[in-house]
Protein backbone atom coordinates (compact mmCIF):
# COMPACT_ATOMS: atom_id res chain seq x y z
CA UNK A 1 0.00 0.00 0.00
CA UNK A 2 1.30 3.45 -0.93
CA UNK A 3 0.63 6.45 1.32
CA UNK A 4 0.16 9.85 -0.29
CA UNK A 5 0.36 13.21 1.45
CA UNK A 6 -1.60 16.17 0.11
CA UNK A 7 -0.71 19.71 1.16
CA UNK A 8 -2.62 22.86 0.25
CA UNK A 9 -0.90 26.24 0.40
CA UNK A 10 -2.89 29.44 0.19
CA UNK A 11 -2.34 33.17 0.61
CA UNK A 12 -4.41 35.39 2.92
CA UNK A 13 -4.50 39.11 2.19
CA UNK A 14 -6.56 42.26 2.53
CA UNK A 15 -8.33 43.83 -0.50
CA UNK A 16 -5.81 46.67 -0.67
CA UNK A 17 -3.09 44.09 -1.34
CA UNK A 18 -4.87 42.83 -4.48
CA UNK A 19 -4.61 44.21 -7.98
CA UNK A 20 -7.29 46.49 -9.42
CA UNK A 21 -8.39 43.65 -11.71
CA UNK A 22 -8.84 41.24 -8.79
CA UNK A 23 -10.77 43.81 -6.75
CA UNK A 24 -13.02 44.39 -9.75
CA UNK A 25 -13.65 40.65 -9.86
CA UNK A 26 -14.62 40.65 -6.18
CA UNK A 27 -17.06 43.53 -6.75
CA UNK A 28 -18.65 41.65 -9.64
CA UNK A 29 -19.04 38.58 -7.41
CA UNK A 30 -20.73 40.72 -4.74
CA UNK A 31 -23.10 42.16 -7.36
CA UNK A 32 -23.88 38.65 -8.62
CA UNK A 33 -25.36 37.70 -5.23
CA UNK A 34 -28.49 39.62 -6.29
CA UNK A 35 -29.09 36.90 -8.92
CA UNK A 36 -29.15 34.19 -6.26
CA UNK A 37 -32.25 32.07 -5.62
CA UNK A 38 -31.82 31.06 -1.97
CA UNK A 39 -35.36 30.75 -0.59
CA UNK A 40 -34.36 27.82 1.64
CA UNK A 41 -30.93 28.59 3.11
CA UNK A 42 -31.26 32.40 2.77
CA UNK A 43 -27.53 32.36 2.04
CA UNK A 44 -26.90 34.24 -1.21
CA UNK A 45 -23.71 33.47 -3.06
CA UNK A 46 -22.25 35.13 -6.15
CA UNK A 47 -19.26 34.15 -8.25
CA UNK A 48 -17.33 35.97 -10.96
CA UNK A 49 -14.58 34.46 -13.07
CA UNK A 50 -12.14 36.18 -15.39
CA UNK A 51 -11.30 34.53 -18.67
CA UNK A 52 -7.90 34.67 -20.33
CA UNK A 53 -9.09 37.41 -22.71
CA UNK A 54 -10.24 39.57 -19.77
CA UNK A 55 -13.98 38.97 -20.07
CA UNK A 56 -15.89 38.31 -16.83
CA UNK A 57 -18.62 35.70 -16.46
CA UNK A 58 -20.86 35.64 -13.36
CA UNK A 59 -22.92 32.99 -11.59
CA UNK A 60 -25.10 32.69 -8.47
CA UNK A 61 -26.38 29.83 -6.35
CA UNK A 62 -29.75 28.41 -7.45
CA UNK A 63 -31.57 26.35 -4.81
CA UNK A 64 -34.37 23.86 -5.31
CA UNK A 65 -36.94 22.27 -3.02
CA UNK A 66 -35.40 18.96 -4.13
CA UNK A 67 -32.20 19.37 -2.10
CA UNK A 68 -29.64 17.72 -4.45
CA UNK A 69 -30.90 19.66 -7.49
CA UNK A 70 -29.45 23.01 -6.42
CA UNK A 71 -26.42 24.54 -8.07
CA UNK A 72 -23.66 26.48 -6.32
CA UNK A 73 -22.49 29.87 -7.56
CA UNK A 74 -19.04 28.85 -8.76
CA UNK A 75 -20.38 25.89 -10.71
CA UNK A 76 -23.03 28.02 -12.40
CA UNK A 77 -20.32 30.53 -13.41
CA UNK A 78 -17.99 27.81 -14.70
CA UNK A 79 -20.80 26.09 -16.63
CA UNK A 80 -21.83 29.40 -18.18
CA UNK A 81 -18.25 30.17 -19.20
CA UNK A 82 -17.74 26.75 -20.75
CA UNK A 83 -21.06 26.98 -22.58
CA UNK A 84 -20.47 30.48 -23.95
CA UNK A 85 -16.67 30.76 -24.28
CA UNK A 86 -15.20 27.24 -24.45
CA UNK A 87 -12.09 28.58 -26.21
CA UNK A 88 -11.04 30.71 -23.20
CA UNK A 89 -9.26 29.45 -20.08
CA UNK A 90 -10.27 30.63 -16.60
CA UNK A 91 -7.60 32.87 -15.05
CA UNK A 92 -9.25 33.81 -11.73
CA UNK A 93 -12.43 33.22 -9.73
CA UNK A 94 -13.96 35.32 -6.93
CA UNK A 95 -16.79 34.29 -4.59
CA UNK A 96 -18.88 36.49 -2.26
CA UNK A 97 -21.87 35.79 -0.01
CA UNK A 98 -24.34 37.40 2.36
CA UNK A 99 -27.16 36.24 4.61
CA UNK A 100 -30.21 37.90 6.13
CA UNK A 101 -27.99 39.87 8.52
CA UNK A 102 -26.97 41.89 5.51
CA UNK A 103 -23.16 41.62 5.64
CA UNK A 104 -20.96 39.57 3.39
CA UNK A 105 -19.47 36.44 4.89
CA UNK A 106 -15.91 37.68 4.71
CA UNK A 107 -14.97 38.13 8.37
CA UNK A 108 -12.44 35.60 9.59
CA UNK A 109 -10.94 34.78 12.96
CA UNK A 110 -8.36 32.21 13.95
CA UNK A 111 -9.22 29.06 15.88
CA UNK A 112 -7.31 30.46 18.87
CA UNK A 113 -9.41 33.63 18.82
CA UNK A 114 -12.60 31.59 18.59
CA UNK A 115 -11.67 29.36 21.52
CA UNK A 116 -10.80 32.47 23.53
CA UNK A 117 -14.23 33.90 22.70
CA UNK A 118 -15.88 30.74 24.02
CA UNK A 119 -13.91 31.22 27.23
CA UNK A 120 -15.02 34.83 27.68
CA UNK A 121 -12.65 36.92 25.58
CA UNK A 122 -13.85 39.71 23.29
CA UNK A 123 -13.58 38.67 19.64
CA UNK A 124 -13.40 41.07 16.70
CA UNK A 125 -12.94 40.38 12.99
CA UNK A 126 -11.84 42.65 10.15
CA UNK A 127 -13.92 42.63 6.95
CA UNK A 128 -13.22 43.57 3.36
CA UNK A 129 -15.20 46.77 3.91
CA UNK A 130 -12.42 48.03 6.20
CA UNK A 131 -14.77 47.70 9.16
CA UNK A 132 -14.62 45.59 12.28
CA UNK A 133 -17.31 43.22 13.56
CA UNK A 134 -17.30 42.70 17.32
CA UNK A 135 -19.03 39.55 18.48
CA UNK A 136 -21.39 40.01 21.43
CA UNK A 137 -21.57 37.11 23.87
CA UNK A 138 -25.19 38.01 24.68
CA UNK A 139 -26.25 37.10 21.13
CA UNK A 140 -26.69 33.67 19.58
CA UNK A 141 -24.18 32.36 17.04
CA UNK A 142 -24.21 29.18 14.96
CA UNK A 143 -21.04 27.10 14.63
CA UNK A 144 -20.68 25.25 11.33
CA UNK A 145 -17.31 23.77 10.65
CA UNK A 146 -14.97 20.82 10.78
CA UNK A 147 -15.04 18.06 13.36
CA UNK A 148 -12.39 19.69 15.56
CA UNK A 149 -14.01 23.10 15.91
CA UNK A 150 -17.46 21.58 16.52
CA UNK A 151 -16.16 19.39 19.34
CA UNK A 152 -14.44 22.38 20.97
CA UNK A 153 -17.63 24.49 20.77
CA UNK A 154 -19.92 21.75 22.13
CA UNK A 155 -19.33 22.35 25.89
CA UNK A 156 -20.48 25.97 25.43
CA UNK A 157 -23.54 25.27 23.27
CA UNK A 158 -27.09 26.04 24.34
CA UNK A 159 -28.53 24.17 21.38
CA UNK A 160 -27.20 21.30 19.26
CA UNK A 161 -28.69 20.47 15.85
CA UNK A 162 -27.56 17.20 14.34
CA UNK A 163 -28.33 16.80 10.64
CA UNK A 164 -27.59 13.55 8.84
CA UNK A 165 -27.82 13.21 5.05
CA UNK A 166 -28.17 9.60 3.91
CA UNK A 167 -27.63 8.63 0.30
CA UNK A 168 -27.93 5.23 -1.28
CA UNK A 169 -24.92 5.92 -3.52
CA UNK A 170 -21.60 7.74 -3.18
CA UNK A 171 -21.12 10.67 -0.82
CA UNK A 172 -18.86 13.69 -1.28
CA UNK A 173 -17.50 13.97 2.26
CA UNK A 174 -15.31 11.79 4.44
CA UNK A 175 -15.59 13.97 7.57
CA UNK A 176 -16.41 11.79 10.57
CA UNK A 177 -17.06 12.42 14.25
CA UNK A 178 -16.42 9.94 17.06
CA UNK A 179 -19.62 8.02 17.80
CA UNK A 180 -19.28 8.89 21.50
CA UNK A 181 -19.43 12.58 20.58
CA UNK A 182 -22.41 12.11 18.23
CA UNK A 183 -24.53 10.41 20.93
CA UNK A 184 -23.28 12.62 23.79
CA UNK A 185 -26.43 14.87 23.89
CA UNK A 186 -28.57 11.77 24.51
CA UNK A 187 -26.81 10.90 27.78
CA UNK A 188 -28.83 11.78 30.92
CA UNK A 189 -25.84 13.61 32.41
CA UNK A 190 -25.25 15.67 29.25
CA UNK A 191 -27.54 18.49 30.35
CA UNK A 192 -29.43 18.40 27.03
CA UNK A 193 -33.01 17.34 26.26
CA UNK A 194 -34.46 16.38 22.87
CA UNK A 195 -36.78 19.13 21.60
CA UNK A 196 -37.48 18.23 17.97
CA UNK A 197 -37.14 15.34 15.53
CA UNK A 198 -37.48 15.75 11.77
CA UNK A 199 -37.18 13.38 8.84
CA UNK A 200 -37.31 14.37 5.17
CA UNK A 201 -37.56 12.18 2.10
CA UNK A 202 -35.79 14.25 -0.57
CA UNK A 203 -35.74 11.88 -3.54
CA UNK A 204 -35.32 8.21 -4.36
CA UNK A 205 -31.71 8.17 -3.10
CA UNK A 206 -31.64 10.85 -0.39
CA UNK A 207 -33.09 11.14 3.13
CA UNK A 208 -32.32 13.79 5.73
CA UNK A 209 -32.88 13.42 9.48
CA UNK A 210 -32.50 16.20 12.02
CA UNK A 211 -32.55 16.18 15.80
CA UNK A 212 -32.59 19.35 17.92
CA UNK A 213 -31.23 19.23 21.50
CA UNK A 214 -31.47 22.13 23.95
CA UNK A 215 -29.61 22.57 27.19
CA UNK A 216 -31.79 22.27 30.29
CA UNK A 217 -32.39 25.54 32.10
Sheet bearing the most strands, described? Answer: 3 strands, antiparallel
CATH architecture of the largest domain: 3-Layer(aba) Sandwich
Please report the total strand number as a whole number.
8
Shape: globular
Low-confidence parts lasting 5 or more residues at pLDDT below 50? none
Average of per-residue pLDDT values:
80
Number of domains: 3
- CATH homologous superfamily placement of the largest domain: Cytidine Deaminase, domain 2
- Give the helix proportion (percent range): 10-25%
Class inferred from helices and paired strands: alpha+beta
Q: Helix-strand pattern, N to C?
A: HEEHEHEEHEHEE
**CATH T-level fold name of the largest domain:** Cytidine Deaminase, domain 2
State the end-to-end distance: 52 Å
Strand order of the largest sheet: 2-1-3
**Percentage of β-strand residues:** 25-35%
Q: Helix segment count?
A: 5
What is Rg? 20 Å
Q: In CATH's first tier, which class of the largest domain applies?
A: Alpha Beta
What would your notes on this structure say?
The chain has 217 residues and is an alpha+beta fold. The strands form 3 sheets. The chain has a 3-stranded antiparallel beta sheet with strand order 2-1-3. Strands 6-8-7 form a 3-stranded antiparallel beta sheet, with no helix packed on it. A two-stranded antiparallel sheet has the order 4-5. The protein starts with 19 loop residues before the first helix and ends with a strand. The mean pLDDT is 80.
Protein traits:
three-stranded antiparallel β-sheet; alpha+beta; Dihydrofolate Reductase, subunit A; 20% helix; globular; 217 residues; 3 domains; Cytidine Deaminase, domain 2
